[in-house]
Write a sequence for this structure.
């Protein structure tokens, strides 16, 4: 195997094994920052040794063995005292025992439990949303700081600062490495799912930059969602968010044209939709509903996505059901954005005039003042009603508000079409 091949293999192994490595170490050293440092030491050892010795038969076990030795060295040298872990050192000294057996047992057992604990730490509400996203991609996704920065189009230094501050906050707040229980569990699960879907949605419909979609982010979020679903199989909303991501990911190939231009849902070539992902999504939705989660926010959104997935053509879409599902979603999680989406469904089910009535009630909503999709949707309704000049104004305003270059071009093209239709009409 050539050196480049070895490095690609190391990168692939790291993506697969790093989360388990960090999770197992965190349970012992009780500091996610130190655990990541130890895991990184193992990675550096692989980068130094594998190009010479070759990739071991069980690369994950090799990394774990190196990480164990590094952890034992740390515990022997005593830096744990400096990291506010004096209690571990005292416990070992009082027993006059070697740490190796205890450490080895703790690292080898309950890998799934450790991963789930790591998920809850990375997505802890004590952190800002931006910090949770960055830390999740770093610890659970195995992404480098540079990869995260490029995915979200922010400076690498910004992501590095978010990660450092997040780890410091977790340490300062003494956030326990445990799965929350009782009433706290639901809130913490919601935080995890929020982070996963934020990552997915940034890939599905990028808020800024030159590309409308970033499939790699969608794939990272979906991979992490599947892991969480395996770790928490009895949480219906976990299956709900996985269902939503599976079904939406099935459209990625159809969302852009040959030159990267956006293709909206109703204009997509449905033959390009990934039927395997759709079936996986429908199965996940069925699991969420079987667990009593049919009215969960993500399950409802997945049910809406399923309506599109089941329609062989755009004309066969059950817009009446979609409108009713949005009505249910508005009752569970009321928000102006849900109402805007409901307006679109209502317009498709009952005509653009009905949709416009709903949208006009949102024009004074402060939270939507700079939201480009409000004038975009309103412009579309006005165009369908033949009010082309008003539609042009709305679409140009939408174009001025979006930070995504591809979307801006699409909106300006629609505005120009409205201007031509207006001139033809007069």
């Amino acid at each position: 195997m050539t050196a480049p091949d070895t490095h690609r293999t190391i990168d692939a192994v790291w993506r697969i094994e790093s989360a388990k490595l960090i999770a197992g170490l965190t349970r012992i050293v009780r500091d996610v920052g130190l655990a990541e440092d130890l895991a990184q030491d193992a990675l550096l050892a692989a980068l130094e040794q594998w190009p010479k010795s070759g990739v071991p038969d069980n690369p994950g076990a090799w990394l774990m063995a190196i990480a164990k030795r590094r952890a034992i060295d740390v515990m022997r040298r005593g830096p744990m005292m400096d990291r506010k872990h004096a209690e571990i050192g005292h416990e070992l000294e009082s027993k006059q025992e070697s740490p190796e057996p205890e450490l080895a047992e703790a690292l080898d057992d309950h890998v799934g439990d450790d991963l789930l604990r790591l998920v809850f730490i990375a997505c802890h509400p004590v952190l800002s949303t931006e910090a949770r996203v960055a830390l999740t991609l770093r610890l659970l996704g195995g992404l480098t700081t540079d990869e995260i920065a490029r995915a979200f189009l922010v400076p690498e230094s910004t992501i590095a600062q978010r990660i450092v501050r997040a780890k410091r906050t977790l340490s300062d707040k003494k956030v326990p490495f445990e799965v929350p229980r009782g009433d706290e569990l639901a809130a913490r699960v919601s935080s995890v799912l929020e982070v996963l879907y934020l990552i997915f949605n940034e890939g599905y419909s990028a808020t800024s930059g030159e590309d409308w979609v970033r499939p790699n982010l969608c794939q990272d979020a979906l991979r992490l969602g599947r892991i969480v679903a395996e770790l928490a199989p009895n949480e219906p909303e976990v299956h709900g968010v996985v269902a939503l991501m599976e079904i939406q990911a099935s459209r990625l190939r159809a969302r852009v044209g040959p030159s990267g231009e956006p293709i909206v849902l109703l204009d997509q070539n449905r033959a390009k939709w990934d039927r395997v992902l759709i079936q996986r999504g429908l199965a996940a939705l069925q699991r969420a509903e079987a667990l009593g989660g049919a009215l969960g926010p993500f399950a409802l959104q997945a049910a809406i996505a399923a309506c599109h997935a089941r329609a062989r053509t755009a004309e066969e879409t059950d817009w009446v059901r979609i409108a009713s599902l949005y009505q249910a979603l508005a009752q569970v999680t009321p928000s102006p954005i849900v109402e805007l989406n409901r307006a679109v469904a209502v317009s498709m089910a009952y005509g653009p005039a009905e949709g416009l009535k709903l949208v006009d009630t949102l024009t004074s909503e402060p939270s939507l003042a700079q939201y480009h999709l409000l004038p975009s949707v309103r412009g579309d309704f006005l165009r369908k009603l033949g009010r082309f000049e008003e539609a042009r104004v709305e679409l140009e305003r939408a174009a001025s508000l979006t930070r995504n270059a591809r979307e801006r071009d699409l909106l300006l093209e629609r505005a120009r079409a409205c201007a031509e239709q207006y001139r033809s009409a007069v």
